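Bug #77: duplicate submission created two jobs. Keeping one. Sequence:
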Amino acid sequence: MRRKLAAGNWKMNMTPTQTKEFLKEIAPLVKGAESEVLFFVPAIDIPAAVEAAAGTGIGIGAENFYFEDKGAFTGEISLEMIKDAGVSYVLIGHSERRTIFSENDEWINKKLLKAIECKMKPMLCCGESLEIREKGETLSWIEAQIRSAFNGVSADQAAATVIAYEPIWAIGTGKVATTDQAQEVCGMIRKLIAEIYDADTADKIRILYGGSVNPENAAELFAQPDIDGGLVGGASLKTSFEKIVKA
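Kept job's structure:
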């Protein structure tokens, strides 16, 4: 039985002080939740978040990292640094990293392999633009992203990875993929994992939906057979995120 996962992606929001205040407010609201609760926070907020989340059951993840261990990479952070700060999860391949910061499939694969090597818990994002969807190429686009990212990854390693399907046209736009659209892609991803590896691996891997998830639509989305929770943006910055957690 796959445990549901409610993950927030704060993006470039929240100061360390705000981080502590928010986690103090939301911790009692999600205490004892059946689903796993996780927040991906900006690098500067990690120490404050880890401290504030201690003993609450809330996990803290990093939004980004570089795939080298150390060196002359000004402005980057390594997994060794993140891990030492107490982070468990790392986000890989978010569409904003791909489109704004030009991270290509090769980089995404290197990041996933490095996260696995460092025994971190990776969450791999995939998703299509509106142009790709309107051309009817969504499934082939997602398949290419998944196959590239998992190159060199074993079945056991894949089973411990979380995949987040986020249609780019639904991120921060208020537009949400219909339940059927979200389930179709998440179901395809699970079938693809079974094809690449085996049915057991596909059954174990958690697949999330992300893209304008809110307290009103969360329950219907998460009730789908192949959607194991959500990667939530703006709505994770409010204490009403508890409703998504409980959905």
